[in-house]
Amino acid sequence: MRNPSRSARMLVTSRRSSGNDLILATILAFIAGAANAGGFFALGQYTSHMTGYLSFLADNIAIANLWIAAVSALAIGAFVVGAGFSAILINWARNHAVRQQYALPIAVQGGFLACFAAGGLLSGEVGRLFALACLCFIMGMQNATITKISGARIRTTHATGMVTDIGIELGRAVYGRLRPGDAVAADRIKLRILLQLVGAFLLGGVLGAIGYGMVGFLFSLPLAAVLLALGLPDMIGHFSRASRP
């Protein structure tokens, strides 16, 4: 904490530890929750909820409401493109700047989240669609980034999966108490991690809703600043070293 720049580089370094993964995942879950809730107040839709968009797409194709179907397809497409773009950045960095393979996508997400604030400056449906695509793209990038970092153990925007796993672990705990001879028990470490991430997502959602209510689209700027603060120090250090003769 005495050296924020060094702390940021440790969180996004290519040499991972379970502690670093959890801290970074908690920060990203908080930002995802804030962006998701703020996006709902800004756009009337939860932009991390791809299951909902798939349902919207199917329902509106069925009733021939092509405009809503197209908007749903835009959201899904932006999420997929964001996830794919994150994978491209990480794999490129592994071959060209291995120490920055996670700093790069996190910094880019910060830049796009700052661009999301511009959605409030554009008028009418154009601004709304821009903001929707931008935020879905960010959600896809973030989910893919933490998935790659953690080896698919954590997905910060996918609360449904985390809540399901919490239910599973609680069920294992109850079963173990009822039938102690069957050697079934909850994974307490996993349960604690899941509860921490869901709590961070929830807290971010509360603050995101309050933030949008107070300042509108500009609520995304502090969130963007956090991501940039995580990703930029390592990026700046890399380019500084590369520019030395």
Which key terms come to mind for this protein?
single chain, mainly alpha, 9 helices, 0% strand
Mean pLDDT reading = 79
Q: H/E series, N to C? A: HHHHHHHHH
Q: What structural class do you assign from the helix and strand content?
A: mainly alpha
Distance separating the two termini: 32 Å
Q: Mind summarizing the main beta sheet? A: none
Low-confidence stretches are none
Beta-strand content? under 5%
Could you explain the architecture of this structure?
The chain is mostly helical and 245 residues long. The protein is 78% helix and 0% strand. The protein contains nine helices and no strands. The protein has helices at residues 4-12, 18-43, 50-62, 66-96, 103-116, 124-149, 159-178, 188-215, 220-243. α2 packs antiparallel against α6 (124-149) and α5 crosses α9 (220-243). The protein starts with a helix and ends with a helix. The relative contact order is 0.18. The mean pLDDT is 79.
SSE topology:
Layout: H1 4-12, H2 18-43, H3 50-62, H4 66-96, H5 103-116, H6 124-149, H7 159-178, H8 188-215, H9 220-243
